[in-house]
Amino acid sequence: MSDSVQPLAYDVHEAWATPHLKKVINTWSSVNSIIKSGSVSVDGESLDVATVVAASRYGAKLSIKEDPKTLSRLGDSVKVLHDYLDKGYYLYGVNTGFGASADTRTKDLLGLQRGLMQLVQSAILTPEDKTDGASHNEYLGSHSMPSAWVRATMLIRLNANIRGHSGINTNTLTTITQLLEHDIVPVIPLRGSLSASGDLMPLAYIAGAIQGNPDIYVRVGGATGSPVVMTAERALREAKIEPIVLGPKEGLSLINGSAAATAVATLGLYEAHQLAVASQALTALGSEALHGNAEWAHPFIAAVRPHQGQIEAAQNIRTFLRGSRLVVGLEQSKDRFKSGMAQERYAWRSVPQWLAPHLEDLVLSDSQLTVELNSTSDNPVINVEDKDVHCGANFQAASVTAATEKVRLSLQSIGKMLFSQVSEMINHDLSNGLPPNLAADDPSVSFCLKGLDCNTAAYTSELGFLANPVSNHVQSAEMHNQSINSLGLLSARQTFAAIECLSMIVANALYTACQGVDIRTLHRTFLNKLRKPVEELLASSFQIEDAKLISRFWTRFEETWYKGAPLDAEERADKVSDVLSAVIVTSSEASSDINVTQLSKTRKALRDLVLNTYVQHREAFFKNPSTLEYLGNGTKVLYRFVREKLQVPLHRGLIEHPVAGAKDNNMIDGRPKKTIGSWVSIIYEAVRNGELYSEILEFLQDEDSSNRVHRNGNGKYTNGNGVHSNGNGVHSNGNGVHYNGNGVHVHGNGVNSNGNGVNSNGNGVNSNGNGVHT
């Protein structure tokens, strides 16, 4: 850099803190590490989102941590319980009735636990839920939980029980690990839990399974293939697992907690985090499709309104767009004499502000669920230190409900944003010169993505409905004892439904954006190719060599070409060739010796040149698109994933539609023709199985590593958190706002925030925006 050139105060290449992204990358990396190691151990204190995901979805083996502290806690809690009973004390759920029936007393302690199982193993399953494979019912859907949810529930309940506050025997808990070791997963009804006195019903089916109940069903072998459904009695016998007889309080200890709600919420949060990151990548790719002005992602805008989520979203989008030749306003200079819209519409320009609170909410939800994962959710709870037992309501899963409702609202906002972006790309009146419905052929007969627009609207409407809170639908239950209840599992289930809808929107948006950048590049490269022969035609026909006149003509020509997007190729060539007459006739430099015949002849020649060149270029582009050359570093990852790894091609138009008895055997260039829905379904599957997220996060992880130690010409450093330091670890942006290595904002009034403003130390867990530390 020349000494005479002052460095920019807000360089678009500088990296700012991204706490949400770091949490997402760390969790994803941990999942991969656990999958690679193949096993996890639980100790009651260090369970996290990654462990739950790896154990429930990817088959990581589970064990109880064999250390004296853990085993001692369990033994001591059982001893306190028995000491209590030996003294003849009455203790809720051990020698009293349950809930509103707690005014009864009994000496049949084991019979009481059986009675508990009888009252809660009461929800609905259909015959199809108890048979192998998919349901054969043509009318009713599944009434049981997915096995991954159940595995997660078993893990989380085990982690809570081994904390030594529940009075449960080691042998009982070991039996749960044996079930998981033999891939025996209880069939649990989907509905029926209030998540108030815990998820009583779902957890009772796990308790029934370890008892070998002959009317409780399990799935065996589902982690490695199609499961076989059988009774718990048979499964335990074949696995040589001894059925458990529940001792005093053990039934209550197994079921009186929030494990099912927390399990489903945790699995949902993992996907929600990644959907939020994907939405930022899609915004970048869509901006390229519209050849947009991306100055709205400039760091100065976020710096002067320093919400951490806004800073992060702008930073991430700049990272995805770095190196792009299809946007202006960041690396490429913006056009200060731009015609048309002076700035982008809200669906693009306000993305950092729109996403900001939701990125922060997702970090907060993560903190809340991490606390819940390592909590004792039970009642009564045993205090080993004081040798006492306390009745409370640690089963109430209100924190889980609060976390999932924030997640669901975030998903809805992201979905609405993406739908607005999809609509703009498909609508030729808003897409800055792209054809109607992104049809690559003639738009008079090819309507390409019009149906996708409608589908996305449908998904977005359903997503909006699902965003409604669940917590305000509480009903008083169980003789008015459970007059308030969290509905945590219901909220988590609705969050999963929202994830499904948003994943469909993401698949549609990715398909649309890839189509958009292809067509944008097609037309851009066509015009680049056409310019020289057009100039040669003008020179030979009118001896025009004036650079300003040629430039004026070409500017008008390009504008007319893009405005002609709704027209078929022949009409478009006609329309654009009219520019010749308009410019030549109104130009004093060329109008003195106009030959009308020559003008008409040249116009026709121009029209033929445009049409022939376009048709030939389009066919060549279909076979060998050059789009990658124009994309940003991050958006290339998305495009390459779709076009190369998933083999989802540019949609060429009407010729793509498969028909019966086709002479070409429904093949194009050696690949099959498919409906648009089939192509999008391939992308959707890659969204749900995590392939798309892996591509995005690997890129971002590499970007973070490459920026970790970087020094620019102004002597500033970028540290491991992507934050600039001027030598003392602090960077000031010139408006009195500073950012330290943890993304902490320090304002002039001395107020400190850790990015999400939340610190939790009630369980020894502290969240600072960079992860959860114990």
From TrEMBL:
Alphabetical list of SUPFAM superfamilies matching this protein: L-aspartase-like
UniProt region (Disordered), positions on chain: 707-774
Domain of life, source organism: Eukaryota
Record-level GO BP terms: L-phenylalanine catabolic process
Residue ranges with Low complexity bias: 719-774
GO annotation, cellular component aspect: cytoplasm
Ranges in coiled-coil conformation: none
Keywords of this entry: Lyase
GO molecular function annotation: ammonia-lyase activity
Similarity section: Belongs to the PAL/histidase family.
UniProt-listed NCBIfam families: phe_am_lyase
Protein name: Phenylalanine ammonia-lyase
Lineage of the organism: Eukaryota, Fungi, Dikarya, Ascomycota, Pezizomycotina
